[in-house]
Each structure stands twice: as structure tokens, then as C-alpha cells.
């Protein structure tokens, strides 16, 4: 036993890391360790020999265990000292300057929208900003005589003389992404499609380039009730209110039937928008059940599947939530405006801690 004591206490003292300590523990007092095997021999001894050897073996095991524990603590302290020496920081140094850049409100709101709809099971779909006439209009049941197809409203791409390919446009909405997604993935599906769109208009509430988000959900038993629930949950989460009242007004969109404009109850006390209270109503988006012809254009059988769609201006809801009075300021690149309305890069929107924390 004295030989075992000297052997293992010496090896433990020389161990350089915790892996070596663990190997020594197994070798000495593990199930097949030398001390453990010696303790199994007690059964073969006479009562007198067992009375003498038993306490000595137990004392040896306790001594080796204590040595292992002490060595492990010493190695941990040494590792901590080494880490502290490598990671020291002189607190008398001047603080780091604050980052000068900010996140644009549009980018922030897009992240907020993505977080909200992701929580409801929607994924993000994307598509090209230069679209064919078919994807932008025909596939969405927009007839050739519709005013939206006039050159005074839509940016058409120039074509070389003799080019017989279908005309291309700068997309006027993100709805073409719905057609592309249906073609690629079929049904069922649940997606939003945020992105840039283009129309020939420019004033305080319109710019030639702005941002929209479309929503699309297709399944076998989807109804307007599902659409109403999704929009109510979205408005409550986006404006961070506990309750909200929506009003659906009958409308007409070529790509949905039935169609509805959606208003929210609000008040403008003191020039500040308060959602969910008051006697005023504010239009925020258009919606409806996807037209059967749109489903057919996307390669989906309207006799087996149905769905709802909605669309809203991202710039508009950003203006409403953050009190921005002029849409044109979004694109002026005014550093003063960006510093005032911009967001810190660390303000990542999440539902559990607040979108605009």
C-alpha cells in the first residue's frame, strides 16, 4: 500500500491537465483500478487480516481522492490566472466612440415584419425587380385595358427594334413573387414577400420607388376568418398594443375575390397616432381571397386549394409607427434625418423583448 500511495501521489502531483488527472483516477480508484482490485481481495482474507487491511485501503482511497480534487482545483486556478493575464483590460483607457452609422427605418421595419410573420409560420420569398409583363399583370388577372398598365403609371423597359419578346417592367408590386413561389413550390404555402416596387408618382406620400410586403397563405380550408386573425395578430404585434379593432370594407382587386380594404380603429390626439382606441379609422392595407385565375396561373388547382393574400406599404406603416411626416425623406440621404430616425445596429427586433426596444 505504501508503494501505491507513493506512486499515485507522485503521478498526481506531476499531472499537467485534467485529462491526465481523469486517467489517473480511473487507473487508481476506477472499477478496475489498482486500489479497487485490492479491495476486492479483502473477501479472500481471514477476519484478522481483513480487519487490518480494510481501514488502510479505505484511507488510501480517500487520500488519493483528496489529492485528485486538490490538483484539479489547482489546475483550474492556473488556467483562470492565465486567461485573466491574456484578457486584461486597462479601465483607465478612454471609452470607445459610439458607432456613427444607424439602421434605416425601412430596414428596421422589414426586420420587424419578418419577426412577426415568422412567429405565425410564414417564410420570406423573394423575386426579381425587373419582371415580365406576364408575371406583373397577366398572371395576376389584371386585364390589358387596366389603368395600371398604362405607361403613365408603370415603368416599361426599353426594347430594341425588332425585339418580339414580351415587354418587361419595373415591378409595380411584390405580387409577382406569389406567382413565382406557387410555380416553384406549389401548395400548401405560407409566405411574405417584402421588397422594392416602382410606380410613376411623386408627392408627400408617393415616390417612384417604395417598399411593399405581400402575404400569401394557401391550404385546403383557409377562409376570410383566418385572414382576419392573421391581420389582427400582426397589427397588435407591430404597433405593440394589447387590443385592436379592424374594419373590413368591400373593395375590388383583380387578383382577389372577395376583396377588402382593412382599416384600424385609432385616434390622433395631439397629432400622435394611438392604435386600438378612439373614433377614427385608418386604412392600412388591402386583402382578400386569392382569385381562382391567379391560382391557375401559379399552377395550383383552385378546385382543391384556396387561400388569402394581403399587401401593404412598408414605408407607410413605418411613417405611422415612428411619426415620420414625409415619405420623400426616406430617400434623401440626409444624415441628420438618419441620425434622428435611425436605429442602433444592436436593436434586433424580437417579439419576446419588444420590436422597437
TrEMBL record:
Domain of life: Bacteria
Residue ranges occupied by any Aminoacyl-transfer RNA synthetases class-II family profile domain in the UniProt entry: 107-349
Binding site for Mg(2+): 257
Stored Pfam families: Phe_tRNA-synt_N, tRNA-synt_2d
InterPro entries linked to this entry: aa-tRNA-synth_II (IPR006195), aa-tRNA-synth_II/BPL/LPL (IPR045864), Phe-tRNA-synth_IIc_asu (IPR004529), Phe-tRNA_ligase_II_N (IPR004188), Phe_tRNA_ligase_alpha1_bac (IPR022911), Phenylalanyl-tRNA_Synthase (IPR002319), tRNA-bd_arm (IPR010978)
Keyword ATP-binding attached: yes
EC number: 6.1.1.20
Keywords: Aminoacyl-tRNA synthetase, ATP-binding, Cytoplasm, Ligase, Magnesium, Metal-binding, Nucleotide-binding, Protein biosynthesis
Subcellular location per the Swiss-Prot or TrEMBL entry: Cytoplasm
Keyword Transmembrane helix attached: no
PROSITE patterns according to UniProt: AA_TRNA_LIGASE_II
A GO biological process held by the record: phenylalanyl-tRNA aminoacylation
GO cellular component, one term: cytoplasm
GO molecular function: ATP binding; magnesium ion binding; phenylalanine-tRNA ligase activity; tRNA binding
EC class (word): ligase
Assembly with partners or alone: Tetramer of two alpha and two beta subunits.
Similarity comment: family membership: Belongs to the class-II aminoacyl-tRNA synthetase family. Phe-tRNA synthetase alpha subunit type 1 subfamily.
Protein name: Phenylalanine--tRNA ligase alpha subunit
Organism: Histidinibacterium aquaticum
Gene name tied to this protein: pheS
